Amino acid sequence: MELEAESSSVIDIRKNKIRSNLLSHLYKNGDTSINKMARLFHASIPSATGIVNELMREGWIVETGTGPARAGRPPVLYGLNSKKYLTLIMDINRHGTQFVIFDLYNQLIIKKKVDIKLEDTPDFLENLYAETDSFLATHNISVSKLWGIGVSMPGLINASHGSNLTYQNLTKDNQPLVSALKAHFGIPVCLFNDTKATTIGEHRFGFAVNKSQVLTVNIDWGVGLGVIINGELFNGASGFAGELGHIQVKPDGALCHCGKIGCLDTITSAEALIEQAKEGIAQGKATTLTKIVNHRIAELDTVHIIEAAHAGDEFSIDLLSNLGFELGKGLATAVHLFNPEVVIIGGLLAEAGPFISNPIAQAINKYCLSDFKNTLAIHISKLGAKSRLLGTQAYLFEHLISKEFSN
Predict the structure, then answer these.
(1) How is 220-281 classified by DSSP, letter by letter?
(2) Is residue 243 in some structural domain?
(3) Count of C-beta atoms within a 10 Å radius of residue 32
(4) Is position 272 within any domain?
(5) How many CB atoms lie within 10 A of CB 307?
(6) What own/partner pairs with CB < 8 Å and gap ≥ 24 does 101-110 have?
(7) 275 lies in which domain range?
(8) How far is CA 125 from CA 88, 138, 167, 240, in A?
(9) Three-state SS for 296?
(10) What is the pLDDT along the chain (407 residues), one digit of tens a residue?
(11) Same domain for 125 and 158?
């Protein structure tokens, strides 16, 4: 009896593994036929058919049509049932938050920006609860319809512990952020660093698809680096790999918000760009920026600087060029360390396009050994901010699928 139970257990584990892998494959690659599934997972066609029928009964899979026929009858195609669940993505940073509802086909159902800034106080969490509850109620979305919540935010994220070590006062009594969110909403929650989310998004759906060695640089309110090695996201020992913005580039430079002096963040982030623009205006530099913001310099933002650059404002073009070149110097070090096939530039300042990508490329050309740059491609993300949302969604999906079929 013991041997029978053990054998049955092994069979169930293998079947659940195939079910999990099949759903992950459909999520990443789209619809497919039973014959292809059988070949892909080294199963017999009857076994694959049985698993598909089970998943259809459970509402995971639906017939989606027929594929091209090489001979005889065209094969029936199967894909994910997009209506099985919805997911909620919370994209949070120091300047605002947006809520996004996805279905299982990555179709964006609802998106809303809310005025919640990432602040290191417990009030932040209470405000997040209130805004999220209101958002779901307004759109008549029951929590029971949500499969899980994916949270993307900057900082040193310890995913296994579910906490953000950069912002340690978001909860009371040192409770992990994920535990607090789970307790409030009653569904699974995944916490993910925003740059790593962007990297996953690019690797699944952007310029990094089918690439094995990739760097993504997230130029936002801080500067983050995502690293793909041999097709896998590189996390480091504690999950903190990629904090490019906190390498020191100016020993006598400005104080960074991390408490260190002269970090790359202090000269190449969105925040640094705005400060540099304000300093130049205060020094009397000729620029159309004052006109664009109607002389309300306190309201100056990155969008104004990028707008002015596209309109030919020399001062704004120089600001972006200098920032890009300094960032490129930092990236040159990363290129020497990781020898990537492609560098993808994303984040808030990627909207500047060639005004920032060209000086980055120039710096890499100047400071990298020629053998490293001969086959290196540099792209502005074609997904933009959506790469972070899609990456958080992909990370959440893979976590939940693994959990769903772990028994």
Answers:
(1) SSSEEEEEEETTEE---SSS-TT-GGGSBS-TTSPBPTTS-BSBTHHHHSHHHHHHHHHHHH
(2) yes
(3) 18
(4) yes
(5) 17
(6) 101/139, 101/141, 102/389, 102/393, 104/27, 104/80, 104/147, 104/397, 105/79, 105/80, 106/205, 106/390, 106/393, 107/82, 108/389, 110/139, 110/141
(7) 207-382
(8) 16, 20, 12, 23
(9) coil
(10) 554 445 456 667 777 888 898 999 999 888 999 999 888 888 888 888 998 999 999 999 999 988 887 767 888 999 999 999 999 999 998 888 999 999 999 999 999 999 999 988 889 999 999 999 999 999 999 999 999 999 999 999 988 888 999 888 898 888 899 999 999 999 999 999 999 999 999 999 999 999 999 999 998 888 999 999 999 999 988 888 888 889 888 888 888 888 889 898 999 989 999 999 999 999 999 899 988 888 788 888 999 999 999 999 999 999 999 999 999 999 999 999 999 999 999 988 898 999 999 999 999 999 999 999 888 999 999 998 899 999 999 999 999 998 888 76
(11) yes
* Residue listed under structure tokens 């906190």: 246
Strand partners of residue 103: 86
CATH of the domain at 99: 3.30.420.40
Total domain count, the chain: 3
Q: Is residue 274 exposed (0-12), middle (13-18) or buried (19+ Cβ within 10 Å)?
A: middle
Looking at 37, 53, 80, the residue that finishes a domain is: 80
Calpha distance 2→331 (Å, rounded): 58
d(CA 260, CA 166): 14
Under 8 Å between Cβ of 360 and 327 = yes
Q: Is the residue at 202 inside a domain?
A: no
Q: Report residue 140 as tokens.
A: 């008549």
Which residues are paired to 379 by β-bridges? 344
